[in-house]
Amino acid sequence: METFVLNIIANSSLPILFMIIAIMLYTLSKGADLLVNEAVALSEELGIPKMIIGATIVSLGTTLPEASVSVMASISGNSSLALGNAVGSVICDTGLILGIAALISPLKIQKDIVNRHGWIQFFAGLLLVIVSIPFTSLSHIFTNGGYISKSSGFLFIFLLIIYIYTSVRWTKNNKDENAVTVEFSGEIENKFMILIKLILGVVIIIISSKLLIPTVQETAIRLSVPNSVIAATLVAFGTSLPELVTSVTASIKGHGELAIGNVIGADILNVLFVVGSAAAFSKEGIHVTPDFFKLYFPAMIFILTIFRLGTILSKDKLRRSFGLILLLTYVVISMLSYL
Known about the structure:
Elements: H1 2-10, H2 14-46, H3 50-75, H4 79-104, E1 107-108, H5 111-132, H6 141-144, E2 146-148, H7 150-174, H8 191-223, H9 227-239, H10 241-252, H11 256-280, E3 286-288, H12 290-313, E4 317-318, H13 320-337
Antiparallel strand pairs: 1-4, 2-3
């Protein structure tokens, strides 16, 4: 079956390939939406507080497209796609999504929560860069790149568990209903139907990912563009659609704290969950191409720094001016990717 699908992709014209990519990105986002909605419904059925669900499942659910694409790509030996998707998603989430959300309406900030999780967000990105650096051959970093070992992947997964645990503890201790919350309307369905829909969401995400990866690879070959570049822009944008829809909708409805919380959580998960899983389940770890050290890692740290400064200097809202800076930074990074 897989060979049959690969043959169809290989024999398709470029417009058809772009159409397949668009459809798969759409189904990825819908699968993630379905998974999140049903997870919230199941949690309410079981009596789990929404504030805990929002702080964990929402960000986890909206990050599943990145995780599925990256893990599948890493297992198939395409580590540049896996890492590029994760790093590109951090840049996209922080620059494009928060930039647009802040331009629509200044985003409310809860200083203690944003600072606490914001520093974790920043240092998670910094840790990713550090574990990628080939300290034994620094002089060749811009020619040979670096390497993320399987042990680093398992370290990230361990840190992810600690992050989720401490987030739940913080939420319980603070009893802050305005942390990262999700609204779920409608009657609670029975547990069996919710479970079926939950599984369906996972299946949609996995199937879409398995079709998306070879299509992106074939498109990159046709356009003579490196996979890492495609992953860090087109695929990263597409798999960030759940965060984009959630954050923009929250901004329009005046729930800026939800938009910020969703993006911060997604960024942390992109590093610890997406890269961690991709490295841990790869055959020999992840090879970090020179492109990351030349552009994507500096761009990620720069945009995370801009966001940190924005939240620190802001009083109770992230102003439109910072949103514009974040958005322009994302545009510049995207343009440099294709130069």
